[in-house]
């Protein structure tokens, strides 16, 4: 139980960042989308299929030791002659270690900020000034999924990552139990979006997730997720979708510039 309280404390402290407010920064781009597919979140080659390839590496304050993986942001550049007011919506798949920018985007996402027929022009800029804010992720007709990592070959070891998490929250704890059992164990964040445990019982598994939907966290229950014969490399429907918008323990945003 002390571990859960620790996670909840982290959830509250992360919320104070107010990433839903509008921020001013700069963004650059990767010339190859594959650079993001090997990113710190651990999505691997799957990443290039997310969000129509509109991907981003986020600075550490947004990456949040991996809990920011899968978060969605609306980004638009401030040069109105070059860029549209809609900008681009990206999903975080990597950690940005470039101290000059808050994001490094896939070239597709970078070009999507531009006005029609101005995509090549914005690429020539290399780095542009932007404003951005976090927005809810939306996956219509798509439940959150649990992917079993290939490393899950030992009968007691299980590593997973969550895909298609909607809403605007972060998962800060994951518990598991055999279906029909109340004997819960906990998983630890291995890296990025990957969680694991070496104490997993055999049989079909259920999960419960703690998310940052409230100041004390919120439980999301997924009653029957992995079948008894779950296999590494397979992705399983959780049967739930997270649509919550996280509360934030900070001053109200002044979004007057975001029109």
TrEMBL record:
<dbReference type="GO" id="GO:0005576">
    <property type="term" value="C:extracellular region"/>
</dbReference>
<dbReference type="GO" id="GO:0009506">
    <property type="term" value="C:plasmodesma"/>
</dbReference>
<protein>
    <recommendedName>
        <fullName>Expansin-like A2</fullName>
    </recommendedName>
</protein>
<dbReference type="Pfam" id="PF03330">
    <property type="entry name" value="DPBB_1"/>
</dbReference>
<dbReference type="InterPro" id="IPR036908">
    <property type="entry name" value="RlpA-like_sf"/>
</dbReference>
<dbReference type="InterPro" id="IPR036749">
    <property type="entry name" value="Expansin_CBD_sf"/>
</dbReference>
<keyword id="KW-0325">Glycoprotein</keyword>
<comment type="similarity">
    <text>Belongs to the expansin family. Expansin-like A subfamily.</text>
</comment>
<dbReference type="Pfam" id="PF01357">
    <property type="entry name" value="Expansin_C"/>
</dbReference>
<keyword id="KW-0964">Secreted</keyword>
<dbReference type="InterPro" id="IPR007118">
    <property type="entry name" value="Expan_Lol_pI"/>
</dbReference>
<feature type="domain" description="Expansin-like EG45">
    <location>
        <begin position="38"/>
        <end position="142"/>
    </location>
</feature>
<dbReference type="InterPro" id="IPR005795">
    <property type="entry name" value="LolPI"/>
</dbReference>
<dbReference type="InterPro" id="IPR009009">
    <property type="entry name" value="RlpA-like_DPBB"/>
</dbReference>
<feature type="signal peptide">
    <location>
        <begin position="1"/>
        <end position="17"/>
    </location>
</feature>
<keyword id="KW-0732">Signal</keyword>
<dbReference type="InterPro" id="IPR007117">
    <property type="entry name" value="Expansin_CBD"/>
</dbReference>
<dbReference type="GO" id="GO:0009505">
    <property type="term" value="C:plant-type cell wall"/>
</dbReference>
<feature type="domain" description="Expansin-like CBD">
    <location>
        <begin position="156"/>
        <end position="238"/>
    </location>
</feature>
<dbReference type="GO" id="GO:0009653">
    <property type="term" value="P:anatomical structure morphogenesis"/>
</dbReference>
<dbReference type="InterPro" id="IPR007112">
    <property type="entry name" value="Expansin/allergen_DPBB_dom"/>
</dbReference>
């Amino acid at each position: 139980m002390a571990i859960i309280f620790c996670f909840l404390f982290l959830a509250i402290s992360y919320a104070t960042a107010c990433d839903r407010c509008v921020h001013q920064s700069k963004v650059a781009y990767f010339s190859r989308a594959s650079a993001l597919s090997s990113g710190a979140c651990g999505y691997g080659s799957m990443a290039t299929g997310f969000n129509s390839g509109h991907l981003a590496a986020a600075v550490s304050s947004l990456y949040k030791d991996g809990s920011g993986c899968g978060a969605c942001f609306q980004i638009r550049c401030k040069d109105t002659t070059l860029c549209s007011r809609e900008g681009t919506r990206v999903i975080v798949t990597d950690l940005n270690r470039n101290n000059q920018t808050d994001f490094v985007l896939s070239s597709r996402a970078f070009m999507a900020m531009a006005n029609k027929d101005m995509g090549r022009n914005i690429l020539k800029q290399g780095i542009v000034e932007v404003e951005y804010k976090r927005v809810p992720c939306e996956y219509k007709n798509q439940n959150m999924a649990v992917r079993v990592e290939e490393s899950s070959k030992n009968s007691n070891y299980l590593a997973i990552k969550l895909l298609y998490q909607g809403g605007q929250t972060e998962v800060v704890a994951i518990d598991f139990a055999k279906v029909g059992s109340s004997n819960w164990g906990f998983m630890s964040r291995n890296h990025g979006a990957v969680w694991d445990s070496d104490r997993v019982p055999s049989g079909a598994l259920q999960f419960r997730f703690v998310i940052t939907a409230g100041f004390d966290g919120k439980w999301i229950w997924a009653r029957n997720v992995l079948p008894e014969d779950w296999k590494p490399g397979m992705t399983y429907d959780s049967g739930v979708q997270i649509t919550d918008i996280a509360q934030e323990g900070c001053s109200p945003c002044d979004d007057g510039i975001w029109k």
